[in-house]
Amino acid sequence: MRKKNSIWLKIYLKNCLLLNKSDRTIQNYRADLNQFILWFESRYGKDISKVKTNHVGEYQNFLTYGGFVAPKTGLLQRLRNFFKKKRVIGAGNYRAPLSVNSRRRHLSSLKNFFDYLKQTHEDHSKFFSTNPVKPKVHGILVKDININHTSYLRPKDWEKIHDKTWRTKERLILYLLYYAGLRLHEICVLRKEFFDKESGTITFPRKGGKVHTLKIKKADEIFDQLEYWFTHRKSKSTFLFLGRKDKPISVRAMSSLINKMISRASCEDHITPHSFRKSCATNLYLNTKDLLYVRDYLGHSDAAVTQTYIDKNALHQRHLTM
Fold first, then answer.
1. pLDDT in single tens digits along all 322 residues of the chain
2. Which among 171, 185, 277, 278 is annotated as catalytic?
3. What is the spatial distance between Cα 168 and Cα 45, in angstroms, rounded to a whole number?
4. Pick the catalytic residue: 183, 206, 217, 278?
5. Could you give phi then psi for residue 192, rounded to 5 degrees?
6. Is 277 one of the catalytic residues?
7. Superfamily assignment of 155-321 in CATH?
8. HSE of 289, CA atoms in CB hemisphere, 13 A
């Protein structure tokens, strides 16, 4: 990557960190923007200050149909490759076509990136005077058929998973998913000191870095599992779930562990780790009929987002049985 492009990218990611963006969001920004910059350099060999609206249109086609990304190499690098007998296969690294939602995310990352560059350069530089990403030109319509809806974890499937899970660690994870509705990355960073047994609450960082105190459902069951877990495990780390070298478990490893528990129960529906959070939202709403309470419980900033977590079929079934 060109030096200027690398510097602009690092400054932007550092700003995201200062704005308390979550680690996962910053990782997504880094991956999306890295790919765009390498694509632009391989096509035009220029700094990203030269990006125009038509270039973004070309990149949109690249995301839709896939293609190769091969950074241009100078004469000196080609000579080095020759003497080291390095062989470049094809035109570079192939990128497969992306789904509608992934394309939207990439373009959203680009828009935010160039918005930031425009704001930071407008008073002292001629660079980035306009944002090349135009919502009306580059907008991608998402239809319902393009969305892979998260499956609702029905009560009978929950019972299957629960009955097939005996280890304290796994039970604790299940309860934090199903009763507390925590996201995977929130569970991964939990510490013992976040829990207050007397008040039945967890105080922990939510998505975006906001600290949230949550009075959890089924607190007695969760705290019983928590106490037993810390009493019998060997590590002295205060993190609940550990990966290598007593560091917090990664989101990928946590997801893999949960998928194993789901697979062991042989559920009929296609259940994912996120299904637990959707079921938590649905069950809370069925019991309270209070959308704002569910919003605050899940840590959403907008009740419209919370509505998407409530399973319509479950509401319909409850209405039929009343």
1. 889 999 999 999 999 888 877 777 888 899 999 999 999 988 888 899 999 999 999 998 999 888 877 655 555 655 555 555 444 433 457 788 888 888 888 999 999 999 999 999 988 888 898 999 987 777 766 555 455 577 888 889 999 999 999 999 999 999 999 999 999 999 999 999 999 999 999 999 887 778 899 999 999 999 999 999 998 888 889 999 998 888 899 988 999 999 999 999 988 778 899 999 999 999 999 999 999 999 999 998 888 889 988 988 888 776 544 3
2. 277
3. 55
4. 183
5. -60, -40
6. yes
7. Intergrase catalytic core (1.10.443.10)
8. 2
Q: If you search the block for the tokens 């828009």, which residue do you land on?
A: 111
The amino acid that residue 9 corresponds to is L
DSSP helix/strand/coil, 84: coil
Q: Is the full-model pTM beyond 0.90?
A: no
Our answer to whether residue 293 is catalytic in this structure is no
Q: Which helix (H) or strand (E) holds 205?
A: strand 201-205
206 noted as active-site residue: no
For the question of residue 183 being annotated catalytic, the response is yes
Residue 274 to residue 95: CA distance in whole angstroms:
27
Question: Domain ranges in the chain?
Answer: 3-146, 155-321
